[in-house]
Amino acid sequence: KIEEDALDSLKDLTQLYLTENFIENISQNLLSGSQTLSSLSLNGNWIDDLVPGSFVQVKELKELRLQNNRIKKIEKGVFQPLPNLRELHLQNNLIKEIEPGSFYTLQKLQHINLQGNSLNTLEDVLSPEPPSLQSIQLDSNRITALHDDSLRGQSRVRMARFNHNLLSKLNKELFRDFLMIQRLYITNNAIAHIEDKTFQQMTALVLLDLSSNKVTYISVRTFHELQKLEELNLSDNRIKHVEPSSFNSL
């Protein structure tokens, strides 16, 4: 345990590294004397619960690292006091639930990493307005399906990773706002069906990795309008039929 007033004298601190320790919780007043803090690293500890109010004193925080802990749930309001946060690292925890709206106040968030958790959905989590997110990593979860509005409004995302999940299909509404995406990875899932024109809005896409799925059929409209695509990986699928001219628009 770190006593609440332990950091009070560090008035001009901008970066704090407390990685690879045995910290179990973050008390509400622990960071009250660190209002200039821009980067906080708490990865590799024993934190299993995030209490609303833990970050209320560090409004200038831009980078928060909480990976490799034991966090099971993200409550709405935990990150509300962090309007300037750009990077949020929550990978390799035990997260099963993220309450709706949990990231809505992070309107400057550019990078979020949630890989290596136990999520099975991402519904109503990311804020659609304003679109600031540039990368999202959701590898190695248990996501079986993504709601049509799961990624709504994310028009500035340039890289997204959904590898090693349980997705079985992709529909054209899911990625409709991915207007600036350049790299999309959806490997090692169970995708058997890709709806026509699913990737149609991705006119900036240069890399698409769909390897290690269960795709059996490629239609002439599967990769419609991907004129900038440089790398397409369809290895280790179950493709039996490819319609004529399926790759003409690439």
TrEMBL record:
The keyword Transmembrane does not apply. The lineage of its organism: Eukaryota, Metazoa, Ecdysozoa, Arthropoda, Hexapoda. Keywords: Leucine-rich repeat, Repeat. Pfam families: LRR_6, LRR_8. This is Uncharacterized protein. SMART domains: LRR_SD22 (SM00365), LRR_TYP (SM00369). It comes from the Eukaryota. The keyword Repeat applies. Signal peptide: none annotated. Gene3D superfamilies: Ribonuclease Inhibitor. InterPro entries: Leu-rich_rpt, Leu-rich_rpt_typical-subtyp, LRR_dom_sf, SLRP. Transmembrane segments: none annotated.
